Amino acid sequence: MNVIFDLDGTLIDSAPDIQSMASKILTVLGKPPLSIEETRRFIGEGSAAFVKRMMQARQIADTELSFARIHEQFLDEYIGSVDKTVFYPDALEVLTKLRATGFRLGLCTNKPHRATLAVIDHLKIPRLFDALVAGGMMPKRKPAPDMLQKVIDDLGGGASLFVGDSEIDAETAIRADVPFALFSGGYRKAPVSRIPHNWRFEHFSQLNNIVQIAHGN
Length: 217
Prior knowledge:
The protein has 217 residues and is an alpha/beta fold.
């Protein structure tokens, strides 16, 4: 069975790093920095969506030229912004256990590809993921099902469970016709009751039981 994870807000809390580097850009532009709450609200649909939300929140004119310039700065800063990023409690231990017990693990994230590789390297993750699809690797991002379907194909197909933290992840799972486990401690915008899910968990210590149920054990 395949167990596929979103990254930001699901396995890792990267908001402090994103807040720092986004605020650095805003400071140069003479604008107030982002709060951590704003940062978490803006995460979810890739770097371009984040930058547009940031510009709107700080009343920065969103022209084609201004967006392109700020987005380029954002991507440049993003790659090295890893120092404050941490796993959620027990997330790495659960990944390691699932891998050791024979589950195939995948990663499906809208985070830019180079930034994804940078944070994986920073966290010194052993080779746990058999497939990875990140932002920029395919024409369409989540919630389009393409990225998730590509991960499943790269894992060899078969029964799969998608684990994420947001409305975007829930919609992706629905479009791909894949069962969804919602981590309620991440960056979701809506109440849990309004996000479609097959299972939900507040702590990663609960996920193993969900995977076993999804696997039919």
